[in-house]
UniProtKB/TrEMBL annotation:
Involved in the assembly of C/D box small nucleolar ribonucleoprotein (snoRNP) particles. Recruits the SWI/SNF complex to the core promoter of rRNA genes and enhances pre-rRNA transcription. Mediates interaction of TELO2 with the R2TP complex which is necessary for the stability of MTOR and SMG1. Positively regulates the assembly and activity of the mTORC1 complex. Belongs to the PIH1 family. This is PIH1 domain-containing protein 1. Residues 31-182 form the PIH1 N-terminal domain. GO terms for biological process: box C/D snoRNP assembly; rRNA processing. Residues 178-197 have a biased composition (Polar residues). Residues 178-199 are annotated as: Disordered. It comes from the Eukaryota. Residues 214-284 form the PIH1D1/2/3 CS-like domain.
Length: 286
């Protein structure tokens, strides 16, 4: 049987182009990762595909819930504790680490256009959701809420897990955060709160410990009158910078430090009685 050498040459050129494209893509992502050492590029494994509709236009939306060991697992939670959490006043207090990918256009089984989102969670937590329907419903609800908040969309809560499809489209790399934000712990309760319409810069002071000699800690005391709960606070620490936002539009603070700190060993605590946020940061020796 004779073969068409021109076709073979064309296929080889296509493979070479794909390899070159992949190499350039990974090289570019590597450069981005070097510029932002607090993140890394991962290629998640497929998990399950959830079908729902957007509101109000009722367009098909598919949520690919993927899995990767690079995403940290959430704190351990039993089924009984999850039930108590869902019945509480604030079920969002339990955080599930996840990476929310950009929307991408795909074709459904009827060759019609649709939108797909990729959500990546920890692989062990994914297996737990596969075994327990309650955790499955919970992680889907959290994924929907995360996508809605990030991309300003609204998704129907009537959904269906596709049986014969683990992923819609093609799996792409995702850039995930490797350094976690410090969690904020609460102390004694208080109920006073106000909600001005524009964010303002809060009063704060920086304390160096010890006051003499080589500094070991940098302590920030931030006064946040009107903030009733740490759940309305977003705190992000860099090596020489702190960004704090109190929602909704209550306070905003963006300041640089005279010393380099280690964000991973830093801790934050919000006292609801005094309404003071204390951020204790470990100073990196110079």
């Amino acid at each position: 049987m004779e073969t068409d050498s021109s076709l073979l040459t064309s296929e080889m050129q296509q493979l070479q182009q794909e390899e070159l494209y992949h190499h350039l893509l990974m090289q570019t992502m590597g450069e981005v990762q070097q510029q932002n050492p607090d993140s890394r590029v991962i290629r998640p494994d497929p998990g399950m595909c959830v079908k729902t509709l957007s509101i109000p236009d009722k367009q098909k939306v598919f949520v690919n819930i993927c899995q990767s060991p690079a995403v940290p697992p959430p704190p351990h939670l039993s089924k009984e504790e999850l039930l108590e959490l869902l019945q509480s006043d604030d079920p969002t207090a339990y955080r599930v680490p996840m990476s929310l990918g950009e929307p991408h256009t795909e074709l459904d089984n009827n060759s019609l256009g649709c939108t797909a989102h990729d959500v990546v969670i920890n692989n062990e937590f994914f297996q737990k959701c596969q075994k327990d329907p309650l955790f499955l419903q919970f992680v889907i609800a959290v994924s929907f809420e995360g996508l809605e908040n990030k991309y300003s969309i609204e998704l129907s809560r009537e959904w269906k897990v596709l049986k014969n499809r683990k992923f819609l489209g093609s799996i792409s790399e995702q850039n995930i955060r490797t350094k976690s934000k410090p969690s904020i712990q609460e102390m004694s309760p208080s109920d006073s709160h106000t909600q001005p319409t524009e964010a303002r810069r809060p009063e704060f002071c920086l304390i160096v410990e010890p006051p003499a000699g080589d500094p070991h800690y940098l302590i920030a005391e931030i006064h946040l009158p009107g903030v009733a709960s740490s759940r309305s606070l977003l705190l992000d620490l860099g090596e020489d910078r702190m960004v704090l936002t109190a929602r909704p539009s209550l306070f905003h603070l963006d300041c640089y430090f005279p010393l380099n700190i280690d964000p991973d060993t830093s801790v934050a605590q919000y006292n609801k009685k005094t309404q003071i946020l204390t951020v204790t940061m470990t100073v990196v020796p110079s």
